[in-house]
Amino acid sequence: MDAAPPAAARAVEGPTWSGYFGTLARYNGWATARLFEHVDRLPDDDYRRDVGLFFKSVHRTLNHLLVAEHALWYPRFEAGISNPIALDTELETDRATVRDRLLAAAARWEPLIASWPPERFAGRLDYTTTRGVAQSLPFALTLSHVFNHATHHRGQISAAICALGHPCPELDLVWMLQAEAAPR
User: Fold this and answer.
1) Kind and range of the H or E run holding 65
2) Of 52, 48, 73, whose CA–CA distance to 149 is shortest?
3) Does residue 139 lie within any of the structural domains?
4) CATH number for the domain including 165?
5) What is the full DSSP assignment across 78-143?
6) Which pLDDT score is estimated for 1?
7) pLDDT score of 47 more than 50
8) pLDDT digits (tens, 9 = 90+) for 109-137
9) The pLDDT of residue 55 is above 80
10) 91, 130 in Cβ contact below 8 A?
């Protein structure tokens, strides 16, 4: 059997928080890119239509991901900054800009995670909620929330794409791992 490529090898090099979360960060970027392969094919009417999602449309849900992951959580983890921004803020009206910003922002997580010492994952994340309430939560579990939250909303968007009669993206983590392990 051929040696695993470096990315797949990092995913199994041992039970470290950094390796685990690095894999989730890589998956977040991979899945977001694959999702956009399908979102980009949607007619603008379908992209902006209220399809019954929590944030109504594919566009508004993608904006929510931009707000939550990158305007709220990333600054909290990276610099301890809690931005006062509503979860339903429309940061971008242009769909190409939403895509570009989400993809660029997703790429920032893996290097950030790799920069933390192992003991950081056993600590706490202190921040202020969007309602102004001070919080202190377990660092690793709260970081899990960030990636789980993105998966949740990508699933909603995938279901909406299918319900609108368009091909549905395959976004399972194992698909990424298989692609990384495939001979090149």
Assistant:
1) helix 58-65
2) 73
3) yes
4) 1.20.120.450
5) HH-------TT----SSHHHHHHHHHHHHTTHHHHHHHS-GGGGGSEEEEE-TTS-EEEEEHHHHH
6) 46
7) yes
8) 999 999 999 999 999 999 999 999 999 99
9) yes
10) no
